[in-house]
Amino acid sequence: MFLLEITNVLLSLIFCVLVSIVYFYILFLIFIAKKVSLKPDLKLIYCRFVAEIFFHFVVVLNKLYSIVGLVSTTMFVKNLIFYLIWLSLVMGTIKTTIVFFITIDRVFAFFSPIFYHKHRNKISMYLVLFFISLFVFFDQFMLFGYCGNVIDVPVNCENFQCTVNQCYLQYWMVHEQVVFFVISSLSTILFVRLFVCNFLVFNQSSKLISKATQIALLDCIIIIIFNFLPVLVLAYFPSINLKTGITAIPRTGGSLFESIIIFRIIARQKSVAPTFVSPV
């Protein structure tokens, strides 16, 4: 059991470090090295990269603390795990909300391209940040208000389940499943429509799919395989994650896989400019 735990923690730690490095390198190429062109229509995508970096940095801190606990439980600091988990919850909410808005953005861009291009620039990023703040505030209300969690966890606690009470744990699992289901459903609708346009209607111009849409569709695949399924496993078999934390490997591994593909999408430059720029 100890070998399984340490393997899980180390793999998750390595995956998270690599994810942060990849996204940081992408932002470096765009904003500092200027080797990748800055695209205004990818502002939400760039915000998502920043959220990914901070989220996985917090997860790295969690994993380092877990390693400390595996070495010696006497090195645990009371309530420190709560603050680490709390930070990861906040950053996770921000990250997931941004992904949700990206999906909504792509759906509108494809199904209502004229309306989208007329009104998209009128939506300020401050409005998006406001809605993200609302999601974070609601999550904090559920944690401390409705569920009444207090900052008083056992000294030997080192995972999410023993950090929060059963009320918030159930809310979190339902919330994750609902959000992932909505994002996956919208992305599936978008994928089906793109498939019809590209392969059944034989519309040559529709074959030029924007980078934002490619990333949104990639999010759908990653969420279903590496995020939604582990949450279901945790919901129906909570003892598995409680003892080994094994669901962390597919989630962090999926994030690494996604970051590498996104890097290839963002860094790819066309040698010849296309005559048609897809709105999606």
Explain what this protein looks like in three dimensions:
One of its GO terms (molecular function) is G protein-coupled receptor activity. InterPro entries: 7TM_GPCR_serpentine_rcpt_Srbc, GPCR_Rhodpsn_7TM. One of its GO terms (cellular component) is periciliary membrane compartment. The chain has 280 residues and is an all-alpha fold. It has one domain: Rhodopsin 7-helix transmembrane proteins (Rhopdopsin 7-helix transmembrane proteins, Up-down Bundle). 75% of the residues lie in helices and 0% in strands. 29% of the residues are buried. The C terminus is likely disordered.
Principal-axes shape call:
globular
Order of helices and strands: HHHHHHHHH
The CATH architecture classification is Up-down Bundle
Biggest sheet details: none
Total of domains:
1
Radius of gyration (Å): 20 Å
CATH superfamily: Rhodopsin 7-helix transmembrane proteins
Q: What is the count of β-strands?
A: 0
Using the coordinates above, name the CATH class.
Answer: Mainly Alpha
Q: Please state the structural category.
A: mainly alpha
GO molecular function: G protein-coupled receptor activity
GO cellular component, one term: periciliary membrane compartment
Main location: membrane
InterPro entries: 7TM_GPCR_serpentine_rcpt_Srbc (IPR019420), GPCR_Rhodpsn_7TM (IPR017452)
